[in-house]
Every structure is written in structure tokens, then in C-alpha cells.
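Progress against Task 2.4 (sequence-to-structure conversion) is shown through the following example record, which the project officer requested during the mid-term review.
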Amino acid sequence: MPETASSIPGHLPAPRWFARPAARDWSCAAAPAVVRDFHASLPAYAPTPLAELPSLAQELRVGRVFVKDESSRLGLPAFKALGASWAVHRILAARTAASGQVSSPGPVTLVTATDGNHGRAVARTARLLRQRAHVFVPPGIHPEAVAAIVAEQAEVTQVGGSYDDAVRLAAAAAGPDAVLVQDTAWAGYEQVPGWIVEGYSTLCAETDAQLVAAGVASPDLVAVPVGVGSLAQAVVTHYRSRPTGHAPALLSVEPEAAACVLASLTRREPVSVTTGETTMAGLNCGTPSTIAWPYLRDGLDAAIAITDHDSYRAACDLAALGVSSGPCGAASLAGVRAALTGHDADERRTALGLGAASTVVLLSTEGAAANPQATTTD
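C-alpha cells generated for the chain above:
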């Protein structure tokens, strides 16, 4: 993985909040509609729930709060299967077309690096399609999450260093019969990550339909957990490509230990940060995806960084309300809480365009089973 951003030390002081309300005026092209049709054709497909939680609306002083619950997506406890399944479908179709044969030219090894959920999704997709998988795993991933990848019959290589280091090793392992299926992009490697982002569009399309069924034409705020920014790119693409109607505010949420998107937005250029330890393992990424960055720069209204304690409390509260959410999934609630309460909350509410009747959507991207993490509240 080549260096694609300037680097800054992770210990430098940085703001926990960034806002740019003008993002609601920005627009882009929509994701292809065929993606949802593809997912709907899969035997295990069903829309994930959109749960309304009135007690959170009361706490946050807004009209309605909905949580998109991705704790069971295509048989896995996180949303990542949407991107992996669509990208591998496109990869295999391209290989078949290039071979000139009617059917696939033979098994291929799908190579990836992961901080948990993406690697398992790639491994599951490979197993179902009778392909091979090789997954590179950095430190900090819970042993149960690693075991779940192994259970999908994938080869797992545990490496030292950071997530970014694991990505570099995975890229080096690609070859004629080994295709890199990575959910972050850099110069010279953008097509497959773009397909992964397209795959995530199904989540947004489902949310729209579920909101309409609940009597909501459009949300006023959507909060999305962010690692390298691929899901956030999909969310920005979805809401900034609608030709008419209300444009919601879009809030990205990252761990304080790995807030590369917040740092990049603050500096108006992509930067890499030195990551630290966090229970939000799936968000522990130090460099924004190159294809995501223009969308995040121009389409996000705000970004916020949270602590592990914030995420832990949010996960516990969601569990008490009947929503299974891991540390990464609960980050969306933690981020909205941090934005809408405490010192300068009124200023942040104004920046997000929120009032007492506003509708907030929290994307809970994983269930508690995805990455069983420490239960410390420190």
C-alpha cells in the first residue's frame, strides 16, 4: 500500500469536532441501482431492521431516533458482507469475461487485510462461491473474531504493526491467481474498493424505504462510524445524489485513537495518523481511502471523535433497548451524544440544523458478536 497522505503523529492535539454546514449544498452522481437487485437475489438476503427508540429521542431532545441494526446481515454480524459480496461478484465476472470462457476460469484466492468484519465477509463470500481466501490480521483483533475468519476456511496471517501495515502485506500477496479485495483505496488501486462502496448502497436504500414506511420522508441527521471512510462515502453518495428533497446533515464518528478523517477534514487534505489502542477495532485505521476522501471532504457536514468509554456506554444502552451493537456500531450513538450534549451543544445543533422535531438515524454497523471486545469503562 503506497503512501497516499501526509503523516502526522497521533499524539498531536487535535479538535474533537469539525463542522462545515455548506456540505448540504454539494451533489454527486448516484450509486448504480442494480446493486440492490443483486443483493435481493441472494438466498440469505433480507433487509436489516430499522428500530425506533423513543427514549433516545427524548434524551437527545429531537423528534425521532432510528437505529439501523446491522447485527445480522447475510448471515454475518456486520454490514461488510454487502460490499464484499458485490465486489467479489464483479471480480469473478470480470475474470470470466477476460478469459473468454462461458464459466469462471477456475478458483482464485481472495486476499485482504482486516480489522475484523471485512475479512470475515470476504472469507464467507469465498467459501460460498468455492474460492479461496487469505486474510491478513493486525494486532488488536479479538481472538474470537480471528477464529471466526478461520472457521470460514480462510488462511489467516497474523502480522505485527498497524492495520495500514496489514494492508501493505495483503497488497504484496496479490498476483495472477490472487486478487486483492480491500475496502480502502490508494493511487493505482481504486476499482475494487469502488465496487465495495457501491455494495454498501443497499443499506441506504433499505433505510429510505423503512423511514417512508414509518412516515418519515427524509432524515435530518445520519450518523455513520468511520474507519477509512468507505461506508461514509456510500452514505454521502446516497444522500448527496438525490435530485430533490431535504438534504440531511451527515456526521462521521471516529475513535480518538484513530481519527484520520477528522484530522484530514481539519487540515483540508488527507493525512495519516499514528493510531493507538481502541476497543473500536474496526475503526482503528490511520489513513482515509483515496476514493472516499473527495466525498468526505465535500459531503460531510461534521465529524467528531469519541472515547472507548463513550462507545462502551452507548453499546450498553442500545443492548438495554433491544439492539445488539458492538463498539464500532455503537459509535454512531456515542458520536451524536457527544455532539448534542455538553459544552457548546447548542452551537453544534445549529451547525447540524437540528431542532426539537428532527429525525436522527444512527447506523449501527455491527452486532456485539462481531468483535467481542473488552467491557472496561475506563
